Amino acid sequence: MSTAPAAPVPMVNVQIDGVWLQFPKGTRLIDACGQAQKFIPRYCYHPKLSTPGNCRMCLVEMGMPKMGPDRQPVLGADGRPEIAWIPRAQISCAQDVSEGMAVRTDSPMVQECRKGVMEFLLINHPLDCPICDQAGECRLQEFSVEYGNSSSRFLERKVKKPKSVELGPRVTLDAERCVLCSRCIRFMKEVAKDDVLGFVDRGSFSTIACHPERTLDSNYSLNTVDICPVGALTSTDFRFKMRVWFLKETKTIDINDGLGSNITVGTRENKIYRITPRENNDVNGCWLPDSHRLNFKFIADPARLTTPQVKGQPVDWRSALSITAELLKAYPSQAIAMIASARMTNEELFLCSQIAKTLQLGDRVDILPRTGEPDGILIPADRNPNTTGARLFQVAAPQPGARLPSIADRVRSGSIKVLICLEDATKCGLTPEELAASKCTVIAIDILPNATTRLATVLLPGSGWVEKRGSMLNLNDRLQRLNRALTAPGEARDDWEILRDLLLALGGTQNPATIESLFQWMASIHPEFSGMSLSKIGDLGSPISSMAALPANAAQS
Amino acid sequence: MAYTVQRPKLTFAEKIYLPSIIAGLAITWKHIRRMLKGETKVVMQYPEEKWDAHMPEHYRGAPTLVKDDHDRERCVACQLCEFICPPRAIRITPGELPTESKFSKVEKFPQAFEIDMIRCIYCGMCEEVCPEQAIFLRKDYAITGTSRAEMVHDKAKLYEMGGVFDGLVHKWNPEK
Lengths: 557, 176
Description:
heterodimer; B: alpha+beta
């Protein structure tokens, strides 16, 4: 028996604020109202989590078709069913739309309900907004202004709860601010699969707590801070560092693994304060691992490389690049090798491939593979963000890293005399002592000092991932865009500009002035990108459908 | 379309100017007479003499920070003044109060608070926006310095100028 094609989802008629609309069966009422541009306030409802319906903020007035004695809906003068309104308000988050359903999202009853719910939620709230980090992006603040009362009738003493509780190494709880929406509990149970949070105590004294023998130490713990609608869960790292309204938000992607999670980088005056996930249901959903979002401190490292150097002496860019080109021209191509990086963008890897072609490097070019255990939630085994790009442009072996041992051997034996390093070569099978002993001329492009840059004859300072614009291909052949959130320190330049100028100095003819024109050049040679441009990629990226099948990579499986 | 301006028709008295000159001289003579009789005083010998005694209650001088009657700094580094300040004269570096502090419940305080008095326009928005009643415009108006750095008032200077404000806000009192 063959499998039948999936039946189309039937549509149902729903009346929202007097207007009849159609929605697919199974749509949540709260989402249907949202699609009809009638926003319903909510605290506990999150589309990616289960629905407990405990905050009561999404109350609406609901009705069903009036049934006649024949169990058929009674039709009104307009041919539509007459509505029998339910006398009590219903929560719209735990209700799917059904045929003939009607809702009023802003009737006097609904407004009164919301006022009442807001008043209850604020009874024990400390109202310490001037201190609270959530101020500015707090649902309690927003809904209080939109739907609440301007003053409190509560004269009794507020319940005091613990403040500044370290739930885990990265999350701090302020129990007084909590509205008991249970989003964090459900997230830890359903998404992070680490059920450590729960409610303890009763009534007004209810509070969030961690299992007594555990801490909230999951690698996804900071997502609870993102979904917390109030300031109860705060990031220990970002706590009291900067008010959110000062942050300039740049949409870019994460580079800690092959997934390329979509992120928003919050900066002020050229300093990163926090990284938060950006919703993209084709990539990372709404989530981001803690290890990835906290890995931005190195960008502001005072040791960052800021000036081009030749033999340890600072030089200007023009002489640095001409010296590099002379060095490369002085040796036969058999004596040159390149270690590219799968942390570079497509544009940079494309320029690497052009340099490799000009220098006829053949098989003396590869990338440093990075792998780890996949965590089964978001993080894949490949920890390089652009392995797919490196393989597409053939600056990596079909099995990334497979050529590194032979390159290392030839450096040790002295047959390779010039090494172009876009990664730390001492992590590619060579020890720093071996590299120093080989008398190999090292041309390094990097952002931070390491064993290779210390040995480098020519050192060219590049840019970090939040300092450049470009594109990357993730493990699922999805083309995603990096955007610039910061400017690089000192004289450090965009890596693609360094590589372009190097290619020109080696006799290249193309001189793209902007990253967009570089992309066009790349697209003219690689048909995978034809019809695309950096702008067309969009904030959510777009899948590359015409991707040529690349040989299987054992590291990815 | 052309528009012809009509020239005013001057009388003979206006044409010879003399009546106007005499009228002007009369006003001058009147003021000289009143000054000689001591009826008017137009010069104040600054800085020996100052306006301070005559300043109105609502005068907006230099912004300062104040402490409350428990010697607690009222400012909690919410940075609203930094946000509202039209010439961007205010700079705050927020910090977390240590748990052993007497006021640890307040959690947050300004590690550094700087007002650049070259930039300040004395508009008073910082005072108006402050939710903690921590910043007040006092009556100091003669803010001088010999370098730009000297014109930036740091936290110590701001508290020295502001002093103590025994005020209305008791929200951090644990009994309240």
